[in-house]
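Run log, item B.
One chain of 148 residues. Sequence copied directly from the ordering sheet:
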Amino acid sequence: MKGEQARAGFAHEMVMMNLAIFHLLLPVAALSSGYISTFLSLALIGSAVMIFLVARKARQTSDVELVNAHRQLAWRRCRLLLIAYAISTIIMLLGWLLASIQVDQNRVNIMLVVFSRIAAVPIVLAVLILLVMETTALSQARQGIISN
């Protein structure tokens, strides 16, 4: 039973590692160094790889219902993160579009800075919400509980 609970919690641990490393640690390192685009690119690629691994695990079926349920739950949570990425991308594209029609270069710079800050909000909110949700789900997986 303990092995099944550990396997059920593994998908949640991967999601939490993704959130902690690629959404909390690397962006802080990026902002404190001169390599912002490099670190943020690594964070995006690393996050995509982790989400892919969670999705692949979710497609694998196990003979244990607890493991399957928690893998599917972790994948649904990753989809929420992907939705936040999509919303942020749309906001940033809108900012670039509006900035491209500006004549004054100062306005272009200001608009890009403002829209980049606004575009970060959906991801930050999703990360905070998912950290709480995944902590609860990991606890339930370790207790052998299948959540609704």
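Observations after the first pass:
- The radius of gyration is 18 Å.
- The chain has one domain: 2-143.
Flagged for discussion on Thursday.
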